[in-house]
Design brief:
Elements: E1 2-5, E2 9-16, E3 22-29, H1 31-41, E4 47-49, E5 51-53, H2 56-67, E6 76-78, E7 84-90, E8 93-99, E9 122-126, H3 135-146, E10 151-155, H4 166-179, E11 182-186, H5 187-193, H6 200-209, E12 214-218, E13 224-227, E14 233-236, H7 249-263, H8 269-272, H9 277-295
Length: about 300
């Protein structure tokens, strides 16, 4: 099992009526949640670990996970409220405002770390769940405990406007980068993690120096590149589609890559170091393919496996 560890929230997505009035509709979301949903729809049978509210929004999230064949036995339920993210779309691109004080997802504490069954071969982390306290410490402690025996995949998916204590977050991110076997970053993420005027290639080298076996860089419409354990670079072009919005695109890309690696038996500590160019190219191409479906329709709505057959 690939266990997705991180936030689930409700995206309140803006719409504007003919009279100009703005309204918001509730959609399930969250970076890690979206990836778990996409993996489930791709027949990977993932698990999900997070704190979920027992309120109406938490119930909506839980039911959505089950409907996409995600194992929810690791979810930690509480009476705290759900996290809300109000989403403003400008030319299809999303800008987020989060409401996350005292929520079920945020208030996870390292003392609550669950036992992870032997059936879990890889854990996936990232998103805003690594920013907030105390859940950021919860997920970092989990990765630290499990990194010796299981593959750790990380997508920081950085939201600068959500960060309140930048030095503390940077320290946690450095810890996670040192534990991760797979690191996926966007070009914007990379420039935030490694500031300065260096080239993207130079900054990728800095990420690789922290220990990751596989580093992946997404560049929006310019496609994606991956760096093999041996250092070779593989690039693929983006799918050409009519874009509706980018909500969940990166999360779905991650699911496509991880799904392909899982099906190939490569999400293993030893096997990951032997990934060759053909497997990486195929994984990146599948990631761009499933992400292309997501951006072609409204919201984070990743494709089912049968849509890709």
């Amino acid at each position: 099992m690939l266990l997705c560890c991180g936030e689930a929230l409700i995206d309140m997505i803006e719409s504007r009526g003919a009279d100009g009035r703005v309204s918001y509709s509730a959609h399930v979301g969250g970076a890690i949640f979206n990836t778990a949903i996409a993996l489930g729809r791709l027949r990977i049978s993932p698990g999900f670990l997070s704190g979920l509210s027992q309120d109406m929004f938490g119930t909506q999230l839980l039911e959505a996970l089950k409907a996409s064949h995600v194992d929810v036995s690791h979810v930690i339920l509480s009476d705290r409220p759900a996290t809300l993210a109000f989403v403003q779309l400008t030319d299809g691109h999303a800008v987020y405002t989060f409401y996350d004080e005292n929520t079920a997802g945020r208030m996870l504490d390292p003392s609550e770390l669950p036992e992870i069954p032997e059936t879990v071969n890889a854990l996936y982390f990232g998103g805003i769940s690594l920013i907030s306290e105390p859940c950021g410490e919860f997920y970092a402690a989990l990765a630290e405990r499990e990194a010796a025996d299981r593959v750790i995949a990380l997508d920081p998916n950085i939201r600068p406007g959500f960060i309140r204590d930048e030095p503390r977050y940077r320290a946690r991110l450095e810890q996670m980068l040192g534990l991760a076997d797979i690191v996926k970053v966007s070009d914007e993420d990379l420039n935030w993690i490694v500031p300065g005027s260096g080239s993207l290639a130079e900054k990728i080298d800095e990420i690789r120096a922290r220990g990751a076996k596989l580093v992946i860089l997404t560049k929006g419409s310019a496609g994606a590149s991956g760096w093999l354990p041996t250092g070779g670079e593989i690039s693929v072009v983006a799918q050409r589609v009519e874009m509706v919005d980018t909500v969940g695109a990166g999360d779905t890309f991650n699911a496509g890559v991880l799904a392909h690696l899982q099906q190939a038996g490569a999400l293993d500590k030893a096997a990951l170091g032997d990934i060759g160019p053909d497997l990486l190219r195929d994984a990146l191409a599948f990631g761009t393919r499933v992400a292309g479906v997501t951006v072609s329709r409204a919201g984070a709505n990743p494709p089912w496996a049968q849509e890709l057959e």
